[in-house]
Amino acid sequence: MYAEGAPCWVDAELPDVEAGKRFYGELFGWTFEEAFGSSVWARLDGDLVASLAPKTDGRMPTVWTVSFATPDAAALGRRITAAGGQVVMAPFPVAGLGVAALATDPDGAVFGLWQAGTHPGFERRYEPGTFVWAELYTRDTAAANTFYGELFHEALFGSGAEPDFGRADVSEVFPAEMPPHFLTHFRVTDLDDTVGAVQRLGGRVQVPPFETSYGRVAVVTDNQGASFAVLRR
């Protein structure tokens, strides 16, 4: 089980799940199987690493969403509201796998909550082809540090804690008008080759490779417009 505040899962909401399977299967070597509803599990060498789901409303964005672990999604939702955030989708059960919710921080960045049932979250991470980092791009990093520090103090600052999400000013990488958001990072062995593969598979480069404190990164979109980052450490 993941400690409260640890990124424990990522999922993509896509217009066309079959197209997503082709793109990510080729890019990361993922295989897929039916999950719940019309969603599919993504596996790497048999281990669960992500999920893809069809968008239920065409007006919703095509996105990757990172979810943070919690033992009690309802209680965490109340703390989020008290700290100035919002719960935009109240906790709901997911096919016996756990309880999910969707929230925003005070600046509007969206993130998920996951209260594990039979599905604890990632079975593999930090390796090539899997989740490695989530970066919050925000307009007020000091306020973000206060908000997330209050919610997830132990995961961020506890003894021996190794945070796997960070905070940066949105204008450091993106245009100032870009809304605050979490950017899911997947680890790769060769950044330039991966960027080339993204383009060959119908995706595009949003931000060419650049250096960060946690590795060399490029921001890309898949063949349906969902943004994510690839990271070489």
UniProtKB/TrEMBL annotation:
Identify the stretch annotated as signal peptide in this record. Answer: none
Where's the VOC domain? 6-116
Membrane-spanning parts: none
Q: Name one GO molecular function term.
A: hydrolase activity
Q: Name the Pfam families on file.
A: Glyoxalase
Q: Which UniProt keywords apply?
A: Hydrolase
What protein does this entry describe? Answer: Hydrolase
Q: Which species expresses this protein natively?
A: Streptomyces collinus (strain DSM 40733 / Tue 365)
